[in-house]
Amino acid sequence: MLNLSRKYKDTLDYINNLAPFSPEIAIVLGSGLGKLAQKVNVKKEISTADIPLYPVSTIIGHAGKIIFAEYAGKNLLLFQGRIHFYEGYKIYECLLPVFISHSLGCKNIILTNAAGGINPNYVPGDLMLNSSMNGINIKKELNNFIGIPGSDGIRNFNNFPSPKLNKTIKNAALECKIDLKEGVYWYCKGPNYETPAEIKMAARFEADAVGMSTVHEAIYASYLGMETSAISCITNFAAGISATKLNHSEVTETAKLVETKFENLVKKTIELS
Ligand code: HPA
User: Fold this and answer.
1) Cα–Cα dist 239/192, whole Å
2) What pTM, to 2 d.p., does this model score?
3) 87: annotated active-site residue
4) For the domain that residue 88 is a member of, what is the CATH number?
């Protein structure tokens, strides 16, 4: 059976040797949301290309850095760029940011992503706190993943989202006067965007937003006992919701527009944590 601690011993040793502190809060920054790193006090930046066995990020908007930073007296671990299943990596490779965060001592993890809006009340630029997720089309991969000790437990997704961390994020939104939406994130593997018919189906199943990441990270992080929450930045109308065709530059451009709102929400969440 694959043992992540053994397989990634060199990876962890490398990061641990450079770590200036033991972090409390991990934040995985989604497409175009990596600029948060400029708003906190960076203590140590590690290029993932230098880390043994760390998968190479292949996507525009994902810088590939692990950053130790401090903000509001809290020690943070930021992942600038994530590893997507659609890039062809194994599911356990996609879980590395979560595995590393947990191994380094993080008790909280905030997962962020760019997502397409399905809910008719959502417009690009909205932020959506994930109330739940639909990962029906990735659970098989996760459940086949034998690298997690007691892998049966991975099927238990009842700890997501963390009521405590979600409450903190909602309070942060109130303080920042951000109209934070709350809804269900629907996972599609990608890398192609969905068809209008798929989005119609997802809407019938009460999905509010759609994206190509996060679900497996959320399942694993909550399985490991971390307080786990996820925030989606609605970067576009999902396929068929608007007449315009989707592309990745629209996603990164909207993420840029919503940058300040997103940063304020996350910074206030850190302050209140
Ligand atoms: N679909 C899937 N993933 C996405 C989208 C989308 O519309 N927008 C940003 N990430």
Assistant:
1) 11
2) 0.93
3) yes
4) 3.40.50.1580
